[in-house]
Design a protein that fits this description.
The complex is a heterotetramer, with 2 copies of chain A and 2 copies of chain B.
Chain A: H1 6-31, H2 45-54, E1 60-62, H3 68-73, H4 78-85, H5 110-123, E2 130-135, H6 142-153, E3 158-164, E4 167-168, E5 171-172, E6 193-197, H7 201-216, E7 222-227, H8 246-253, H9 257-267, H10 273-296, H11 304-307, H12 315-329
Parallel strand pairs in A: 1-2, 2-3, 3-7, 6-7
Antiparallel strand pairs in A: 4-5
Helix pairs in contact in A: 1-2, 1-9, 1-10, 2-7, 4-10, 5-6
Chain B: E1 22-25, H1 27-41, E2 45-49, H2 65-69, E3 74-76, H3 81-93, E4 97-101, H4 112-119, H5 122-125, E5 135-140, E6 165-167, H6 172-184, E7 189-194, E8 203-206, E9 218-221, E10 226-230, H7 233-247, E11 252-256, E12 259-261, H8 265-275, E13 278-285, H9 290-302, E14 311-315, H10 323-329, H11 333-344
Parallel strand pairs in B: 2-3, 2-4, 4-5, 5-7, 6-7, 10-11, 10-13, 13-14
Antiparallel strand pairs in B: 1-8, 6-12, 9-11
Helix pairs in contact in B: 1-6, 3-4, 7-11, 8-9
The chains are: A alpha/beta, B alpha/beta.
The structure holds thiamine diphosphate (TPP) (2 copies) and magnesium ion (2 copies).
One magnesium ion binds at residues 135-137, 165, 167-168 of chain D.
């Protein structure tokens, strides 16, 4: 276990509680029709909090689509995360100083962006590192292979983190690959691969910290496999009970990373019930404020679908936009 | 084998359906029904794709097939579209008839190399020695407010590259009959399913197996004043628009192309020659959409009979918007009516 | 910045070239020249692709660049097109200006997911926060008798999906000026290079850096009887055909589109309005080729001025043949003349 | 070394001599303008002869584009191989009982066909095995990864053979991947990977034999990396001296697999100069006959570009074909 002082450990706990709170809220919003399809992160908070804490201020985050936790920790305002999943492109338009890519929906396609950003940082002599996430399922895509292979060839300043939640929608890991671990895939690229218990936030932090420092020193990329579990459905459009055994879910609910960290904090005397109450209150207030901020966003103008297509709008698009504006006005 | 009875959308039967046992099915159910019956008929038919097995497909189009046929014939694939198609090429060239599912059309891109580079070329490349009788099913199109990449309507992608057939049903009857024909076809067929109306309505569909021939358009509504040309979910929109216009004594004919390649030029041109006016409707962006080919063929074959330029009602030349702006992107009844008006008052 | 002097093909200067130092260059050399000068001007410009470094590119378009700029700026990539584009997305979004080479257009398919899914969407997706200023160079087209997949002319693939600019030069001058503009552009530009005429002729090209604006067509030959519309290597074929027809007192105007997206509709329509007749020529298969969009726009904007239906001279709807049959596939001078005749005798 | 009796060893030698002869001839034909772009196989004969000998009669071959040697040994008539590279599609139209895919030009795309055919053989209870080839460069493509991963998941009856000739056009292996060997990439898929000296025909045969038998027994796929060297240019359109050191070439010319096998045969007393003369003569006669057969092929009708597009020709194609026929006739 790395030497984290108690306040940072409490920060980790706080981060995870915040995640759980906003994830729960998103599911509620979705049921109320105020949110689009939402991919829950419940159960995967330790991976996201642990990696986020290991990242330096200027490091880039390249998420897949189930990284709201780490995105928020890296500075993406929660109300924008909500806006994105509610169907508003402005949700990916956070401020320039947040070094974070937008959500990548095509599974696996972000691995190469991670390699590209890692090469970019190396070429520009930037001290920062690119941290790229993806799921266990995404390791089957050709882009995973290419991204890691190229990162290896170029000594890209990239850390690849697999959130192995053991399912890709309905497909369990053993139908995804015959390899015993995902970490061992690193071997194919001549780079280090490490498997960690993704529900142990300290283990995640330690592995991420080591990998990030290695990349920062210019010693090349690392693959981290964080073994965790998706406690929720794949998305709000999914019903996991169709393909997943109740017992398996129950077993993993017992391994909830938040409970686990709380137990640790309590055992170490770093946490008492009062603090929990305050924290929960704070979390809910923050989430409510963010929902308010979401709902206070002025509606997106219909013509916004045109305005960011190109740096300069070509004539045919202006015409089309004009026709839409007239239609909406009439 | 031909369709025992064709109908337009919901309840608009154009001619009597012969007396056969029927079931009320949605498009999604009709698709499943076709696969099930073909798998029973021919043990070489396989289904493969992401989540098609235990989960029964994210739209339930393969629901229950794995229980019925086992995991050797209903194959949950690793998350790898290029392999879904690439392995299908290997399977098809050696005797199987894979029916591959791409979960959403927006995720077909990783498989383009296998589709364009091999599936479409194997027969020609080997002068007929090896072939690729396979179907690629893809839910397509907008209207369901999903995340990015889940609303693509990119039929044009597959129409300038020869070697595929491209089939898009607009109703449960055709979904079953066309998919049956597609599975029996000796060449690769891209079968695009309008997810927006997957479960929007039910229709009586013959319970037995039947094929609707590929390459034949269908007059979904007869009319005399203008021809609306569409496919997939846009056919229903055209029929709706036609109803609205009927109140204003505009009598629109609706041509449901059903197959984009090979195109049934004859039916389409005949209709345009009759009405003298045409509007083509598609969800895809305007520029270089398949609408352009339709307009061009009309101009090549019926220019002198045209009373007005053919109009296009299409998506805009922008990325398909997320939920908030979706309704502003998609063709609407109003836009179709306005386009018809402009051909009438040219 | 605009072109200091435009000319048609080989020697057919339409107006005087201002007095600037020039060099006689082939298209391949002009392409190299543009990259070299832009790399000197802006250290954020990178070149990457297969064999672009030590080998200097299989067509020598990057010859000597690695010696000049080093392997950090001229990057020999692993054999992985999806990574060439995917990494370019990462590089471009964080401040570099990658000029990526796809060795032949027929090998762009593995990169389609990165191109369509990300490069074309990053600006819109983030409402301008992250952008992808990158160029994708691709030798395209037939005429060199190569193995399979080396002759594709698949511009239509990139025209129904918004977010790209698509640029195709037809001569050394434009190759240099347009590529310069493409590298300076803030959006992804697909730059298709007509390999058939890579080294077919030399032309005086200004030695200094200059940009030919993207989105402007060029009248490569003025005429009054018919408008020939083309791009890339087909422009030269049209000019040849025009010379042949001139002997029979048919005076053809040739519009070199140069940019397919955004299309210079104005120049094109103006010409057609003037001549009343048009023939569009492309190498790609006929159905759903970009010719259809041209015909459609002419019909939308100049129907009443047309004396005859617009004709298409195109490849056939077949897989591009291997060497033996190549000449039968590609548009020829004779086919162009025949199409013009048919518009004249409609 | 596996127990191959002297006559089979001599067969191997014969196979390799035949390859060298037809490859040399193709280069000559190309220089004379009677052949299109040709990718030479010189130096890689041992890989192709060794694998071919290990294959069973009904096994499928799925080549990339530098496998003319093994294709011919599997029954593809040489004159058709020539016809293909001379630009005639009929060159891929060999008889049905030759279980061989056509050349796959898009690098890496054939790996998945190998996985698909291997699954096909498994599902249909066919005893045969699919043997798929590819180059070192092709291992960087996503399709390599996907093909091997899927083959592993499905226990496909597939053997994957990398002809590692150490160059992908101008790109040397160490710029292709940071992995020390290509064989170790198998680890990513939970399947066995083995590196062999690809210029040692016995080593190749032994590895291929073991892998093929394993696949035949239903025990899953194997990856074989055969380390060899491309003694020629990439193709007749390439000039390897632009990027490859003369000394490296010289060194590998010394390791020519044909010389090596001949030396072995001579040492064992299995071969004398007279036999060599006869064999060379036979090889040249065979090649000349095949060139004759090539040149006696009636020209391909222009309309053949239409006739195999679909099982049934659609109306628009008939129209187009008709217009071409009329044009050609006039
Ligand atoms: C290329 C592509 N194919 C299919 C999909 C549909 N899809 C979305 S998420 C998903 C499963 C992803 O699994 P995994 O990578 O393990 O991530 P997780 O959902 O478990 O976080 C699938 C199949 C997609 N988004 N992109
Ligand atoms: C997808 C794709 N990209 C690029 C090419 C062009 N190309 C043909 S062969 C080749 C190198 C192949 O190297 P390797 O796999 O090692 O095979 P080798 O040529 O050495 O036999 C390249 C880049 C191609 N044919 N396909
Ligand atoms: Mg997962
Ligand atoms: Mg090689």
């Amino acid at each position: 276990m790395p030497e984290l002082d108690p306040s940072r450990v409490r920060d980790l706990y706080r981060d995870m509680i915040m995640m759980r709170a906003f994830d729960d809220k998103a599911l509620k919003l979705q049921r109320q029709g105020r949110m689009g399809t939402w991919p829950p992160i419940k159960g995967q908070e330790a991976v996201q909090a642990g990696v986020a804490m290991a990242m330096g201020e200027d490091d880039w985050l390249i998420p897949a689509f189930r990284e709201h936790g780490v995105m928020v920790l890296r500075g993406v305002p929660l109300h924008l995360v909500y806006a994105y999943w509610a169907g508003d492109e402005r949700g990916s338009s956070y401020s320039e100083d947040v070094r974070c890519f937008p959500v990548a929906v095509p599974v696996g396609s972000q691995w190469q962006h991670g390699a590209g950003v890692g090469l970019s940082l190396k070429l520009s002599g930037d001290d920062a590192v690119a941290v790229t996430f993806g799921g266990d399922g995404s390791t089957s895509e050709g882009d995973f292979h290419e991204g890691l292979n190229c990162a290896g060839v170029f000594d890209a300043r990239t850390v690849f983190v697999i959130q192995n939640n053991q399912w890709a929608i309905s497909v369990p890991l053993h139908q995804q690959t015959r390899a015993e671990t995902l970490a061992q895939k690193a071997h194919a690229y001549g780079i280090p691969g490490i498997q960690v218990d993704g529900n142990d936030v300290f283990a995640v932090y330690a592995a991420a910290d080591e990998a990030i420092q290695r990349a920062r020193r210019g010693e090349g990329p690392t693959l981290i496999e964080a073994v965790t579990y998706r406690l929720g459905d794949h998305t709000t459009a999914d019903d996991a009970s169709r393909y997943r055994a109740e017992e398996e879910l129950k077993e993993w609910e017992g391994k909830d990373p938040i409970l686990r960290l709380r137990r640790y904090l309590e055992q170490k005397g770093l946490w008492v019930e009062d603090q929990e109450v305050v924290l929960q209150e704070e979390a809910h207030k923050w989430v409510d404020d963010q929902v308010k901020a979401l709902e206070e966003m002025p509606p997106q103008a219909p013509e916004e679908m045109f305005t960011s297509m190109y740096a300069e709008m070509p004539p045919h698009l202006s015409e089309q936009m004009q026709s839409l504006v007239e239609e909406v006005r009439s | 084998m031909s369709a025992p009875g064709s109908q337009g959308a919901e309840g608009r039967a154009l001619h009597a359906v012969p007396e056969v046992a029927t079931e009320k099915l949605t498009i999604a159910q009709a698709v499943r029904d076709a696969m099930l019956l073909e798998m029973e008929r021919d043990e070489k038919v396989l289904v493969l794709g992401e989540d098609v097995g235990v989960d029964g497909g994210v739209f339930r189009a393969t629901d229950g097939l794995i229980e019925r046929f086992g995991s050797d014939r209903v194959i949950d694939m690793p998350l790898a579209e290029s392999s879904i198609i690439g392995m299908s090429v290997g399977l098809a060239a050696t005797g199987f008839r894979p029916v591959a599912e791409i979960q959403f059309m927006g995720f077909v891109y990783p498989a383009i190399n296998q589709l364009f580079g091999h599936a479409a070329r194997m027969r020609n490349r080997t002068r007929g020695r090896l072939t690729c009788p396979m179907v690629v099913r893809m839910p397509y199109g907008g209207g369901i407010h999903p995340p990015e990449h889940h609303s693509e309507s990119y039929e044009a992608l597959f129409l300038n590259t020869p070697g595929f057939k491209v089939v898009i049903p607009s109703n449960p009857h055709d979904a079953k009959g066309l998919l049956t024909a597609a599975i029996r076809d000796e060449d690769p067929v891209l079968f695009m399913e309008p997810k927006r109306i997957y479960r929007a309505f039910r229709e009586a569909v013959p319970a037995d197996s039947f094929a609707v021939p590929i390459g034949k358009a269908h007059i979904a509504r007869t009319g005399t004043d203008v021809t609306l040309i569409a496919w997939g979910s846009m056919v229903r929109l055209c029929l709706d628009a036609a109803e609205v216009m009927a109140r204003e004594a505009i009598d629109a004919e609706v041509v449901d192309l059903r197959t984009l390649n090979p195109l049934d030029r004859e039916t389409m041109i005949e209709s345009v020659v009759k009405t003298g006016r045409a509007v083509v409707v598609h969800e895809a962006p305007r520029t270089a959409g398949f609408g352009a080919e339709i307009v061009t063929q009309i101009n090549e074959h019926a220019l002198l009979q045209l009373e007005a330029p053919v109009q296009r009602v299409t998506g805009f030349d922008v990325i398909f918007p997320l939920a908030h702006n979706e309704k502003h992107y998609l063709p609407s009844r109003e836009r179709i009516v306005a386009a018809v008006q402009s051909t009438l008052h040219f």
